[in-house]
Amino acid sequence: MRRMSRHLIDIRPLTTSPPFARMWTGSTLAGLGGQLTIVAVMLHVYELTQDTFAVAMVAVAGLVPMMFAGLYGGMLADAFDRRTVALVAATVTFASTALLAVLAWTGGETVWWLYALSIVNSSANSIVMTTRSAITPRLIPRELLPAAAALQGVTVGIMVMAGPALAGVLVATTGYAWTYTLDVVLMTSLFLGLWTLPALRPEGVIVRPGLASLRDGIGFLRRAPNIRLQYILDVIAMTLGQPLTLFPAIGAVLLGGGAVTTGVLTAAVAAGAFLSSLFSGPIGRVHRHGVGIERAIQGYGAAITLFGVILVVAQAGWFAPADPSAPNIVLITAACAALAFSGATDNVSAIYRSTMMQSAVPDAMRGRLQGIFTVVVTGGPRLGALYAGSLATFTALWFPPLLGGLLIIALVGVLVRLNPAFRAYDARRPTP
Question: What keywords tag this UniProt record (predicted)?
Fold first, then answer.
């Protein structure tokens, strides 16, 4: 029993720091509510327009404002009380969601209202996430940062697995107004978690938000080879190894099952991340975080390569069902296993990267570096969608993941070999 417990998630951040426990609980519930609204807005836009391009524009329209908000939120977090910054941004998120609910209840919603409030919501939430990440190292000891990052993986897993499915059920059974209202209710838990925090002014030299502050952050990143390289490695993985945009076509053309298969493949990625967090006990006992990031991202590349191979097999017609229109259960199961492994390895990489950034970056710079990281994590998957969609248009559905996975393995190996200090990084003596 004791041996088994060593492999389970370390929950000491929740037991040793009540403020962190309240913030984590509030963020998890609010994140689940946020997923309800994201999916409900997309369904709402489609109902009003019957246009899939209009639905896609919900995400595209909010991308640039969200990236700028993350950068500016990082500067705010390095200049003012982080508790106050997070509370103000959370209030804006709450107000935009509440207005969505009011419009739905009164029948006053329009496509442009949905676009505008989605942009406001995602931008304010970007500031909340950036500030909250800068707060975490002030609430728990450094040795518990990997465990805190693993708990964040649990949060993301719950959000991605349960949120979209619950949103679909709620919209179908109760309507948009009740769905938005439930998000408003869940958002109140975030206020509880943030309101009860102590004052958290940044330590060290404070630079007011503006170009000088941003230049300081970028200048620090230039002098921080370990942090800079982990950003680059993440961009490579997310650009070359994000086949999510291909899932609808894969479900319709290669594996069968249509929309159901698309949902199952998407859930498999989240399930892998969730399970890797549940069994993340050994991660906290690893000190060579540079090596951990390298191996985790290369494992991610291997999983995406395997997914591409499975699609090649599907294209060749092997293991085909008797009815061509029926889902290919054998290959769907294999694809889900590969994608679950990709979600698990991506989550392990995220744990190490988050821990490195939170422990090696000085407190006075932590908000701005988290803001730059927001640009990385929001921009990378969008570049990945462009890479996969464009390449698949001119080749085949299996080609982008097969090529991308192999490139990830090779590029990560070369870049880490060229940066021996990254491979030698020791969490007990963190250096940016």
Answer: Cell membrane, Membrane, Transmembrane, Transmembrane helix, Transport
**Mean pLDDT confidence for 386-405:** 87
Distance CA 66, CA 40 (A): 19
Q: Which amino acid is at 350?
A: A
- Cα separation, 148 vs 146, in Å, equals 5
Query: What does the pLDDT look like over 283-327, one tens digit per residue?
Result: 778 888 999 999 999 999 999 999 999 999 988 877 766 455 678
Neighbour-count burial of 265, counting CB atoms closer than 10 A to its CB (0-12 exposed, 13-18 middle, 19+ buried): buried
Q: Is the pTM of this model over 0.70?
A: yes
Rounded CA gap, 155 and 13, in Å?
14
Domains of the chain: 1-202 (1.20.1250.20), 208-432 (1.20.1250.20)
Opening angle at CA 272, ends 342 and 118, nearest 5: 90
Q: Which residue has the tokens 């649990």?
A: 154
Please state, in angstroms and as integers, the Cα–Cα distance from residue 384 to each residue in 136, 235, 267, 340, 405, following that order.
Answer: 29, 9, 19, 18, 12
Residue 205: count other Cβ atoms within 10 Å of its Cβ.
Answer: 10
CA 19/CA 195 separation, integer angstroms: 10
The answer to whether 202 and 266 are in contact (CB under 8 A) is no
CA separation for the pair 281, 264 (Å, rounded): 27
- Computed on alpha carbons and rounded to an integer, the radius of gyration of the chain in Å comes to 21
- Distance in angstroms (rounded) separating the CA atoms of residues 193 and 72: 23
What value, to the nearest 5°, has the Cα angle with vertex 294 and ends 263 and 229?
A: 100
Checking if the pLDDT of 261 tops 60, the result is yes
CA distances in angstroms from 365 to 135, 221, 228, listed in the order given: 12, 10, 14
Average pLDDT over residues 387-393: 83
State residue 3's pLDDT score: 55
303 and 345 Cβ atoms separated by less than 8 Å: yes
Mean pLDDT of the chain: 86
